[in-house]
Amino acid sequence: MESANKPSGRKTAEGQKKVLIVEDEKSLLAVLKEEFESEGFLVVTALDGQEGLQAVDKENPDLVLLDIAMPKMDGLTMIEALKSKGKDIPTIILTNLDDLNHISKSVALGPFDYLIKSDWKLQEIVKRAKMKLGI
């Protein structure tokens, strides 16, 4: 898990929103992190759902950007674990899985945005995150 050196909390002292990006593709993780940081977000990253759960507990992000297909713990299992802990964090699912089964399972877990990676530009993903956060 990679974390910025800022105190935990929903907002930093500078008022930045904190985004947790959970993605196992390191190259995509790096460009997403860079894009969100360039838009003024504080970014915390994790490579799988287990790291993601630890990051939620430690960093208390304002939003989670989450892949589904990952090693150790997939994104849907991470969402279920967050719900069982009573965590209600705005979440955007960003995945390559475009089959109806995964979409249906995601929708059943809550009101999440479900984005197919190949259909979205980086700037549009950040814009969607801002909309989700009301900024």
Automatic annotation (TrEMBL):
Record-linked CDD domains: REC
Organism superkingdom: Bacteria
Positions bearing 4-aspartylphosphate: D67
GO molecular function, a single term: phosphorelay response regulator activity
Database matches in Gene3D superfamilies: 3.40.50.2300
PROSITE patterns assigned: RESPONSE_REGULATORY
GO cellular component: cytosol; protein-DNA complex
Name this polypeptide is given: Response regulatory domain-containing protein
GO biological process: regulation of DNA-templated transcription
All copies of domain Response regulatory, residue ranges: 18-132
Organism: Candidatus Staskawiczbacteria bacterium RIFCSPHIGHO2_01_FULL_39_25
InterPro entries given in the database record: CheY-like_superfamily (IPR011006), Sig_transdc_resp-reg_receiver (IPR001789), WalR-like (IPR039420)
Alphabetical keyword list: DNA-binding, Phosphoprotein, Transcription, Transcription regulation, Two-component regulatory system
UniProt keyword Aminoacyl-tRNA synthetase, yes or no: no
